[in-house]
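Progress against Task 2.4 (sequence-to-structure conversion) is shown through the following example record, which the project officer requested during the mid-term review.
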Amino acid sequence: MEMEREEKLENLEDGKKAGEKAPTIEEIFEAQEVPSWRSQLTFRSLLVSVVLGVLFTFIVMKLNVSTGVIPSLNVAAGLLGFFLIKAWIYVRSLIGYTSQPFTRQENTVIQTCVVAISGIAFSSGYASYMLGMTKIIADQGPASANTANNVMTLNLGMMYGFLFLISFIGLFSILSLRKIMIIDYKLIYPSGTATAYLINSFHTDQGAKLAEKQVRTLFKWFGGSFIWAFFQWFFTADDGCGFAAFQTFGPQAFAHKFYFDFSSTYVGVGMITPYSINLSMFLGSILSWGLMWPLIEQHEGKWYPANLLPNDLSGIQGYKVFIAIAMILGDGLFQFVFVLCKSLYNVMKSKDKDVGGEPVLNYDDKRRTEYFLKDQIPTWVALVGYIGFAILSMICVPLIFHSLKWYHIMIIYIFAPILAFCNAYGCGLTDWSLASTYGKLAIFVFGAWVGLDNGGIIAALAACGVMMSIVSTASDLMQDFKTGYLTLASPRSMFFSQVFGTLIGVALSPVVFWAFFYKAYPDLGTDSSSNPAPFGALYRGIALLATEGLSALPKNCLNLCIGFFFFAILVNIIRQVMMHYKNKAHKYLPSPIAMAVPFYLGGYFAIDMCVGSLYRYWREWNNKAEADAFVPAVASGLICGDSLWGMPASGLSLLKIKPPMCMKFLSRDTNTKVDTFLKG
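Structure tokens generated for the chain above:
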């Protein structure tokens, strides 16, 4: 039997279909017994999931508070999970213990659990809507919105309570629709499918050998990135010190946020982010910081009052924030309408196809369908879970956020399953999640409903969190079910893995944010901070618009916002038309939402990401297959190493231990003045 399997592996080629000479995926694995759902949930898989969950929670939180740009970390999670279990088995064998075989189903459970843990770090909103409630963000806006009922002081008790109430309900919202989404509609779920193929490849002999090389590459770059971050720390005794303040293109460009800041994290992010996104961010930074903001600043005293604080939304900062919001909302509105229409069209189309009878399934699909339907989760579990958490939230959430009433929560929970279905369906087609768009929609609805005088900003941001968590968790669960379908992992083990991962994520995320960022960096969320957390100000800005209306905007800002809002919609329409007619030039169109991010932050991180893109292009030019295999491992190593240094750096900051040196870069004229002053 083993020789037969080896022969199948040797004949395996890309592009072969069932019925041809080369074996299909399930034919390769048909000799392997599929363990029961309980056997897939092993102690070692849950332990490894927790270890990796801690790592990825910190990484996602670090990315959240720096730029808010979060790449997919599935490759890193898959590689590290595979490596740690193999290491576990090897160590046990050295001391004379045997271990049960490591299957692709157990690997899928690890992947699901790690994604659930790190997903909470994103959906918790500690660098977006939750941070937007704090005084440090409120101080950047108008005094009319900086009132006691529109500002909150975060504490661990309320953070844990709110996160527990909103994080689990999304798992139950569309749980009963898994068969419809995966089997009946045959949705692709690109990320889930790619993860499944990655896991399946790990458990072939050739794939295991490649995985070992990828892990070595990851750890090599991880070590280099960690050491580089540690080295940089010695020269950052004060603001504006260190390699991150290197004036790469001169002092004038540096003043307009154009420089390379030597961030391993965002060089790595650039390697795994599509070229179009990186170039869109670079284009956005040129358009805003290179052209628009210098021109608007010439009207200081006419368009907005002179001598305002840098972060005052009544001044230049208002243009940066609100124009970025307009582009994000325009892009999000288009995606919402487009995905909704496409979802409804495809649902009706699939119903028409069903009239013709059952489709003929190949061997792989028959086997996958059999195992996917084997361990069912009763419908009553979904109903009881959703209704139970909804009632609990209606009682408890208003106790945390007094301006958000029980009937507001009830309205959210009535409409949330519909939006969760639309989002999960859209993710199945395009891999594009609209969770943040639905969150922004909730901000407008509940901010306008409650009103500024009644604490509308807090109510709007809290409603955003409730909606976003449900929709995001539901689509993540469907992605994981797709992965499980393609690896024969039991839906029941996948669901329990999600629940366990969510529980660990709820326990981890608040304390990671609180200890390593909120308390360690008092300037968190400000433009001059090393952790600017841009989405905190952006989300509060949206809430301000919802409660105060257009009066919150500086002069001429509304006209610019309208222009960029429709620009975002127009670009998306042109892209979809070009894609419909199979015009390959669509990939050269910019992404409006990617362009909007540097409007607020500047171009420095976009330059980092373009450096990463340049490295990836060089590797692909030399050897495309090798680049596809190893560039994600290099990127993951850079991201993990640099981000992980943030943990000891935060600890040193809490202990009031500062770096010993400050390295600054000065222009020649400034340096001459400094030398003269010191000599005098």
